[in-house]
Amino acid sequence: MDGPEAHLVGEAGDGTGEAGAGGGHAHEPSGEQARDADEPARPSARPSVRESGRGAGPKSVRGAGRRRRRTAGDLLIVLAGVVVAAVAMSPIVTRWLGNEPDQRLVDLEVYRDGGRAILRGAPLYDVLTQPPQLLPFTYPPFAAVLAVPFTVIPWRAAQLVWTGLICVALAISVCYAFRDLIRRAGRWAPLAAGVLVGAMAWLDPVRDQFRFGQVGLFLLAMCLADCCARTPRWPRGMLVGLALAIKLVPGVFLIYFLITGRREALGNTLVTAAAATLGGFALLPSDSSDYWFGALLQGGDRTGAVDGTTNQAVHGIVARMLPEGPARTLMWLLLALIVAWYGFAWARRASRAAELHDGPESYSLLLAAVAIVGLLSVVLSPVGWIHHLVWMIAVFGALVGDARDTRRCLFAFGLWLLFLFPIPWWGRSLIGPEHSAVSVFAGQVVRDLFGVAALASIVLLGTWLVKRAEPRLRREDPSQPEVGMGTLSP
Questions:
Q1: Is the peptide bond before 132 cis (omega within 30 degrees of 0)?
Q2: pLDDT band at 133 (very low <50, low <70, confident <90, very high)
Q3: Which residues are paired to 128 by β-bridges?
Q4: Which of 34, 36, 195, 465 is 20 to 30 A (C-alpha) from 454?
């Protein structure tokens, strides 16, 4: 389940893919390939992204040259990338796999107990994990079905397998988020990917994924692959549909597909989600009815206190400011409506800019649109826990792009530093009767910092990044200066 603030009893805050999955080739282009990768195609010669179903970005030239044969040096580079990522993640993995038994991967225990309930015919939504957690199952029945394989292996083995899958999902997410930067590394792409995986693993939301055994990185990888793959080997929208059947929050991508004209992806998402949900009804009719007409409507009663520090959604920020009542609900709905209106508008704007142009900025703009929608799934939800903010990985990738723009890289680096630390919990420690009014006020501000940063990232991607990319998008060749009045173009 999603971790409420009382996720870990007596423990307040954290004290502390494949390279080819990104849709691009990791090898260094040569000859015509290198030239074509840097030069955008003529607009008239290319169908729009919406029509072709491809992610934006430079075209790869097939058959224009033979791939360079891999050497022992290439294999050593791949090995170095894996070692760097493994070394960077090992302290995180060992820390949480070595946690107290009743505090270790508590959300994985929820999924596993849900699978056990199915096998023994117990009511899925009456099951609670062992004390001291006593956590209920809060996902659709389809998610419990997927958890059944983890019930037939020992608990320790399930922890190891799940943690390994989280590492794979993180690697896939990084390869999609930083595709242009990794491709720019050429032969050294595997090492660059390993460094980036290690850097992203230390983000506070990502560490919480390992800590609780959460599904957030799986959902991130599925949504990025579905929305950003240039030529997916599956019907576009299918992975988002599966993510939606596992957890409801990726449903925001239905709006994204609708407003950007991706009707085929929208249809595939709906068909996939409906098929999985109906399959859940066929297998578990009673549990499905209990969820869709009961447990789903209970909201905070099952997911935890909405005013807890770990809830960084707009609802959580408002709940920490106002007492429960009609005024708080009205304020939340009003702010959520404003955020949704501008957020989806900016996502549509970035997506359109990506469709209209080839070149080094196109993929960044597409990724920015997807990142905005992903952040909306967190800030608009009634409960958006800190570990849901793994979508910041996509934000960093959109800002960095191919790393040719220093100012964009500085913004990404600043945000990365912010999310390295459990800052909201620092704010929580400043609040209490023993603290002064100034300390309490400062604590409330710091407590909401991740949520505010997510909202600021939506604005940054939807306005500043799109405007900053426009001068480069207007150039046919990014290596040439813009032609002004009274000059001769080459």
A1: yes
A2: confident
A3: 136
A4: 195
CA distance 175 to 168: 11
Cβ atoms of 281 and 245 closer than 8 Å = no
Under DSSP, the state recorded for 54 is P
Q: What percent of the chain has pLDDT over 70?
A: 81
pLDDT digits (tens, 9 = 90+) for 201-216: 999 999 999 999 999 9
**Mean of the per-residue pLDDT values for the chain?**
85
Residues 60-113 have pLDDT tens digits of 434 444 567 889 889 999 999 999 999 999 999 999 999 988 889 999 999 999
Quick one: 63 exposed, middle or buried, by C-beta within 10 A (0-12, 13-18, 19+)?
Answer: exposed
The DSSP annotation for 221-287 comes to HHHHHHHH-SS-SS-TTHHHHHHHHH-SGGGHHHHHHHHTT-HHHHHHHHHHHHHHHHHHHHH-HHH
- Of 108, 83, 131, the closest CA to residue 211 belongs to 108
| Residue that has been written with the tokens 């849901």 in this structure | 388
The residue among 365, 366, 346 whose CA lies nearest residue 55 is 366
Q: Which residues contact 311 (CB under 8 A, 6 or more apart)?
A: 5, 304, 305, 319, 383, 384, 385
